[in-house]
């Protein structure tokens, strides 16, 4: 009997018992759908977490905290020598470094003022790393500055009453600066303690650029970038490293003395994601403390890999339960088709052919069930992702804080399901198929099995 004849024979026999075969396929489809939907929760939540991590940080970014000391615990601050070493490492695209003004700095424009974090940075390396402006240009002189995208939104009127914030936590429009910033003069106020008093110095600065809008809706950029020469002027006024504000009789702490001419933030940007791990490994060998989003993703992926394996295992139990129905269906098929088996054996059919016919039938049932279950699971996944956010909004009166993906079905998941289902159906049909090869011809012809 040729293979195509075997397939035709299987289809004809399945049509004879449509109800029983349909219920068996339905049970298999439900088991497959359960496995896929259950595991898709793990895939969906992993995708949400990874998306949240990668959107908050540049995936090619490596934070360098310092260099490990040999004679004591902790790390020393990074200096220009370290920067030069980092820039020579293979596959490094850029090395950004920032110094932070070590006191609260107040910026005033007309009758409006704001406190903001002030940095000194190397703009050449920042541009290499992807730094962009929404307006204006980069500074050229020591009295020129670049401000964050949200800087103007936090310039509040000095005459404003106590409650100046709206429900969203933003300064109300009537108390907020509404003019343009590019080309405007700001006054930076820095302080020092002298002769029992706090002495202030006002430094005029010109806004020449505004940074690009943050990618995250909830993120705010209120930083101010000043020139290195301006930081030196502030240090000469305060007499402390990076403008540190001290009590009159206090001395500069040892940790701040060690940070003189050092950088507060150093970030390395790799040429591509694949190079991040190799760069981190090289720096770790040189005893630098590093951290990148790749490290975080490793931990996240490991946790979710274990979770997904557990969910697939639980889902496989549903398919195993469905396999009982397949076993029962195939056993009944052998009993009912005993005369047919007897005739095939009488005309010289090979036992392997008879066995293959029943295995083909069980495979048919399993694969059809798996395909139906896959289609149904995609429908369920789409419905879940659409409905659950609406349910949460109705139940709690607000939307989810992050863009959660409750169910995600990558191509590998249906493939895993089909392979598991196919394997289970072959095992379920093996015993009945083997029994079919042992049917006695004479008894079969008398319909006695």
Automatic annotation (TrEMBL):
The chain crosses the membrane at residues 21-45, 302-327, 364-391, 411-430. It is a multi-pass membrane protein. It holds the Pfam family FtsX. Keywords: Cell membrane, Membrane, Transmembrane, Transmembrane helix. Residues 22-283 form the MacB-like periplasmic core domain. It comes from the Bacteria. It is found in: Cell membrane. Residues 312-438 form the ABC3 transporter permease C-terminal domain. Belongs to the ABC-4 integral membrane protein family. This is ABC transporter permease YtrF. It comes from Neobacillus rhizosphaerae. The lineage of its organism: Bacteria, Bacillati, Bacillota, Bacilli, Bacillales.
